[in-house]
Design brief:
single chain, about 350 residues, alpha/beta, two-stranded antiparallel sheet, flavoprotein, isomerase, isoprene biosynthesis, FMN binding
Length: about 350
């Protein structure tokens, strides 16, 4: 139970640090700022007819937006998850939850993840750290995480830098490819490989696809730095300094997308890591992603109020629609094919 309490306290710290401190990368960027859409002054379109809906894992979404994995396991996390789930249901968005390890270790906090009743039709992703497969976790724990959420897929998050900086982090990543391969074969839902803000390279994407991963969330550099988050809560001066040294470590989100699409043109691809508005989402779609994932904007809005969440989604959808309108493209597939995004 001591371990469960430590995990729960860490989750509470993560929320507090992300909401109150500056945890953004200092110099690293997403790379999206290097891309610009070609404006179309005469789109020959009625804006009302533009379609930003999409499908992912055979579920229809009203927009290519993923409410990225954030939290769980505390009272505040429960409030945030329930508000996010209600928004995901109302607007037909995809949603991932934070690591469910806290609920596996302490079932008393499992209700902070029980959001299927609130979002019966939403595309929901369960979430566990892949490294836990080297620390007693296996198919049983993964199934518990999936069942708890009644999830459509399981995210296995990959976070070596975060674990290296985290006080008493789990740092044995040896042999995980084989264990992930076994899970991909055994689990009843697709497995998504996700970084946490340092990016997935072309080479690693190829390996993950070869072992059976069904989708990739690049979670590139340029947004929240989990090295800075862990530095902000570290008690040990070495860990604190380590987090600051590596605050900007990683592969920019835009580079992850373009590199992975060169070798895997059809793998379902989620772009997260530093996306802050609908223009960012549209750029990732034009680069080849299928969904754009946002965490911090949704966390801040959910912490504020339900009204703030409604406003955020309305803004994001309006921004994405405006990109299509002002590039003369009718839907997301046309946006991908049109060549209207140029690198400068």
């Amino acid at each position: 139970m001591d371990g469960a309490i430590e995990t729960q306290n860490r989750k509470a710290d993560h929320l507090k640090v992300c909401l109150e401190d500056d945890v953004q990368c200092r110099e690293a960027t997403t790379g999206l700022e290097n891309y610009h859409f070609t404006h179309c002054c005469l789109p020959e379109l009625d804006r009302a007819e533009i379609d930003i809906s999409t499908r992912f894992f055979n579920k229809c979404l009203s927009a290519p937006i993923l409410i990225s994995s954030m939290t769980g396991g505390t009272d505040l996390a429960k409030t945030i998850n329930y508000r996010l789930a209600a928004i995901a249901q109302e607007y037909r968005l995809a949603m991932g939850v934070g690591s469910q390890r806290v609920a596996i270790e302490n079932p008393a906090v499992a209700d902070s993840f029980k959001i299927r009743s609130i979002a019966p039709d939403a595309l929901l992703f369960a979430n566990l750290g892949a490294v836990q497969l080297n620390y007693t976790y296996g198919i049983e724990q993964c199934l518990r995480a999936i069942d708890l959420l009644e999830a459509d897929a399981l995210i296995l998050h990959l976070n070596p830098l975060q674990e290296a900086v985290q006080t008493r982090g789990d740092q044995n990543f040896r042999g995980l490819l084989d264990k992930i391969a076994q899970l991909c074969e055994a689990l009843p839902v697709p497995v998504i490989a996700k970084e946490v803000g340092n990016g997935i390279s072309q080479k690693m994407a190829e390996k993950l696809i070869q072992i059976g991963v069904s989708a990739i969330d690049v979670a590139g550099a340029g947004g929240t730095s989990w090295a800075k988050v862990e530095s902000g809560r570290a008690q040990d001066p070495i860990q604190r300094r380590l987090g600051l040294t590596f605050a900007d470590w990683g592969i920019p989100t835009a580079d992850c997308i373009t590199q992975i699409r060169q070798v895997a043109p059809t793998i379902p691809l989620i772009a997260s890591g530093g996306l802050r508005n609908g223009l960012d989402v549209a750029k990732t779609i034009a680069l080849g992603a299928d969904l754009g994932g946002l965490a911090l904007p949704f966390l801040q809005a959910a912490n504020d109020s339900e009204a703030a969440l409604h406003l955020l989604v309305e803004i994001l959808e309006a921004e994405i629609t405006t990109v299509l309108f002002c590039t003369g493209t009718r839907d997301l597939n046309e946006l991908k094919r049109s060549g209207v995004l140029e690198k400068h």
